[in-house]
Amino acid sequence: MSKPQIAFVTGGYSSEAVISYKSAITIQNNVDKEKYDVYRIDITPQGWFYSGPDGVKTDVDKNDFSIIHEGRKVNFDAVLIGIHGTPGEDGKLQGYFDLVNLPYTSCDATSSAITFNKRYTVAVAAFAGINVSRSLHIFKHTPVVPEDILKQLKLPLMVKPSNGGSSIGMSKVNKEDDLPAALEKAFKEDDQLLIEEFITGREFTIGVFKSKDEVLTLPFTEVFTFNDFFDFEAKYQGKSDEKTPAECDEGMAKKVRDTATRVYKIFNCRGVVRMDFIYNAERDEPFLLEINTVPGQSEMSVVPMQVRARGWDLKDFYSMLIEDALGQKKG
Questions:
Q1: pTM (2 decimals)?
Q2: Residue ranges of domains in the chain, CATH in brackets
């Protein structure tokens, strides 16, 4: 019996492509090659292609997302999505794979598009009763002066590109004079921004996934940043520390796990996602910051650490995600 043919997609069109390629190393080293035939597909602004063992690049046939390998056509059974940012995390690829009837390991197109936009994420979450920060959504085509922002929100503020990840373009604003520069920095990454009141508390991040229709949580992590907030430098250049599992009482831990499970169901997630929370001591409740539907998988990333903390190895974990995707195939 032939093994399932799996396309592992990496790269991307945004500045987060560099993170995709870091994740690709971990994923490729840990996908079970005895169970699956895995083909790495690079999706870049210059083209979609498969690089064979000999280094020769073969273009992907976008009519059905197939390739030619060793003189034969390869049609895939499922796609393992490893692209951070557009088009792998914002629903674009998911919509394409739906059109060609290919199952994949991430959330569907609708959930991916909503959660990729930080403002729409917190709006949907708030409507469902999840705690989120007070915020504003502003657009480059309709300028808003800093004074108007500060009439509606209290300092300190977090200024974030609405679409994007890895904390690129994000700033913490502690005083009014710093707001214009923060807006300019964020608008270089996106034409719409989320501006939130800063929530004080402990920062937790938790992996959540579905296996055999059951939503499961991984041991969650507490993040300690050496910077003013958990920015790109803190995430990827060693300016932070993490503790997995986080040290907290069971009551607090249960609230984080229960809220994460509820959020996963509210957004109809699939595959593994990572959610970031601030646990506010005054309210004694977690506040949702964002949802990452294609979380980082590099050696420094949180999800691999949490998988190991649960006593699993990554090979079994990725197999679980692939099997869940294969179970979605229609026709």
A1: 0.90
A2: 5-105 (3.40.50.20), 113-132+199-293 (3.30.470.20), 135-197 (3.30.1490.20)
